[in-house]
Write a structure and sequence with these properties.
276 residues, alpha/beta, 10 helices, 7 strands, 22% strand
Length: 276
């Protein structure tokens, strides 16, 4: 996926003040990801109680409260590349907001027990970020993250494809490819799976507006830049009609991908060469 990194940063910074109001999907994904952390922490044979947690791409800090409820002795590094997002996080003694890029995380190597990341990876170069997460983890440390899968927004993508062949909708890495990448980087106990979540809207414009309000609109560097004309919106709506529900709403499907992986206890942090 070819994305304009500065455009992504600007979009999320602009959306910071209204992010919590609109990010329904992010909240649902957060709850589901926390359930998976709970299994490792409290239900598996070897209980996992992290002392240092990196909440990578923390946004406005939704994950902080539930993480501290589970691990009340932990220190949380709340990391995001948007200063505007970090400004929304209430000050707490156990929480350290840190502005940093996920492609070059500002933490010491081997210093983190758990990397927790909810719906951030899809805006990044996945290979670089997974390498950085592995560097940050202590031997035996865990990564739990969610990202978007290849079937995300298939309705919108199909509707646009009837109009032209330009990239109007971001494309995302399939779950199996993400798991393969983690295995090639030397992660252990890799588990990747996905599920579909469908949200409904009153109009196609509402779909696009919601994506924009959470900073998640198209940022492909080959995209058509500029506003969509009323004529094109009308045509887009016509092609979207085939997906309408029985009650007249417009669905938007999101494929939520979960990736769980462990840094081997024998891994001392030496970099691996990844073959394309």
């Amino acid at each position: 996926m070819s994305l304009e990194h500065h455009q992504i940063k600007a979009a999320f910074s602009k959306a910071a003040s209204q992010y919590e109001q609109h990010a329904v999907l992010q909240k649902e994904a957060l709850e589901r990801l926390l359930e998976r952390v709970d299994f490792d922490a409290f239900e598996s044979e070897q209980k996992f109680l992290p002392k240092t947690i990196l909440d990578l791409g923390c946004g406005t800090g939704w994950a902080i409260k539930p993480l501290l409820q589970r691990f009340n002795d932990s220190h949380i590094i709340a990391a995001d590349f948007s200063e505007a997002m970090l400004d929304q996080i209430p000050k707490q003694a156990q929480v350290e907001p840190r502005q940093t890029d996920a492609h070059a995380i500002d933490v010491h190597a081997g210093s983190v027990d758990l990397v927790f990341s909810n719906l951030m990876l899809q805006w990044c170069d996945e290979q670089t970020v997974l390498q950085e997460i592995k560097r940050a983890l202590k031997p035996g440390g865990l990564m739990h993250l969610t990202t978007m899968g290849e079937h995300t927004l298939h309705e919108l993508r199909h509707a646009w494809s009837e109009i032209d062949d330009k990239p109007h909708v971001n494309r995302f890495v399939p779950a199996n490819e993400l798991a393969d990448l983690a295995l090639r980087q030397g992660y252990a106990d890799v588990i990747a799976d996905s599920e579909l979540i469908t949200m409904t809207y009153g109009s196609v414009i509402d779909v696009m507006r919601d994506l924009k309000n959470i900073g998640a609109h198209n940022t492909d560097d080959k995209r058509t830049k500029g506003l969509t004309s009323p004529r094109v919106l009308k045509e887009l709506t016509k092609h979207y009609e085939q997906f309408r529900t029985d009650d007249g709403l417009y669905p938007a499907t999101f494929e939520l991908v979960y990736l769980r992986a462990k840094k081997s206890s024998e891994d001392k942090g030496l970099p691996l060469r990844i073959k394309d």
